[in-house]
């Protein structure tokens, strides 16, 4: 149902809401700073005019114990429309749990503004 309004809640192990997003549509995002422990995710159908709807759910967490991406490109001014290749080293340091993959993100920034980014997906890690 394209007109559905779904709300997203993150609860800690005690059942307390530690994050929520309920903004009038079905595209919700919650960020939990310094997560630890076990969380429960609750999706509430606040308004579902068609009576039912399907949705996709993705959770992402950051932890350097899984690895790093090191970019060795020096800061420099780049004229508008310029493209360049950036050398980087991806190091996977741990195998993620079953059903999970490692994802890294490299950003091009101008001060505090992100002007571009790209994702690195590690689909298989062996020890």
Instruction: Give the strand content.
Output: 35-45%
Span between termini: 44 Å
Helices and strands: which structural class?
mainly beta
Q: What are the low-pLDDT stretches, counting only 5+ consecutive residues below 50? A: none
Number of strands: 7
**Into which percent range does the helicity of residues fall?**
under 10%
| Spatial sequence of strands, sheet with the most strands | 2-1-3
Kindly provide the radius of gyration, computed on alpha-carbon positions and rounded to a whole number of angstroms: 19 Å
Can you summarize this structure?
The protein has 127 residues and is an all-beta fold. The chain has strands at residues 5-11, 17-21, 40-47, 67-71, 88-92, 102-110, 113-122. The strands form three sheets. It has a three-stranded antiparallel β-sheet with strand order 2-1-3, with no helix packed on it. A two-stranded antiparallel sheet has the order 4-5. It has a two-stranded antiparallel sheet with strand order 6-7.
How would you portray this structure in words?
The structure is a single chain. Helix content is 0%, strand content 39%. By secondary structure, the protein is mostly beta strands. The strands form three sheets. It has a three-stranded antiparallel β-sheet with strand order 2-1-3, with no helix packed on it. A hairpin with a 2-residue loop joins strand 6 and strand 7 (113-122). It starts with a strand and ends in a 5-residue tail after the last strand. The mean pLDDT is 88.
């Amino acid at each position: 149902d394209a007109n559905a309004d779904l709300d997203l809640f993150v609860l800690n192990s005690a059942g307390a809401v530690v994050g929520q997003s309920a903004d009038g549509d079905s595209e919700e995002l919650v960020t939990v700073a310094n997560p630890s422990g076990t969380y429960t995710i609750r999706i509430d159908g606040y308004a579902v005019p068609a009576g039912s709807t399907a949705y996709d759910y993705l959770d992402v967490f950051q932890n350097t114990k899984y690895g790093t991406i090191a970019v060795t490109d020096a800061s420099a001014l780049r004229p508008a429309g310029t493209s360049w290749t950036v050398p980087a080293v991806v190091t996977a340091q741990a195998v993620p749990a079953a059903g999970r993959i490692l994802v890294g993100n490299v950003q091009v920034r101008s001060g505090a503004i992100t002007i571009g980014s790209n994702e690195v997906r590690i689909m298989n890690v062996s020890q």
